[in-house]
Amino acid sequence: MNYDNKKIIVSVSGGKDSTAMCLNLLENGYSKSDFIRVFMDTGWEHPGTYEYLNQLQETIGEITKLKQDIHFPEEYSEYVEYFENKIGW
């Protein structure tokens, strides 16, 4: 498929599929400046994900990292702590 005259935005998660998409674009003649890479940071990512993304940038180009700070009401703090502990944060 030809993406000339189109803005290409790749949502990069740090997983194999989004990595493959970026590599596919590069292998098919697109330069790093021909597409935008965006990572949506939930704040609950595994530390290894951030390390991988930093290394990945060397190959696929700069990744724009977007993060929304979410503030929970104090009465929900024990629930937030419970779930963060459950997933290892």
Structure in words:
- By secondary structure, the chain is α/β, with parallel strands linked by helices.
- It has one domain.
- Helix content is about 40%, strand content about 20%.
- It contains three helices and three strands.
- The longest helix is centred in the middle third of the chain and has 14 residues, at about 45-60.
- The radius of gyration is 17 Å and the shape is elongated.
- About 5% of the residues are buried.
Summarize this entry quickly.
The protein contains three helices and three strands. The protein has 89 residues and is of the alpha/beta class. The N and C termini lie far apart (41 Å).
How many separate domains? 1
Largest sheet: 3 strands, parallel
Give the strand content.
15-25%
Helical percent range?
A: 40-55%
Shape: elongated
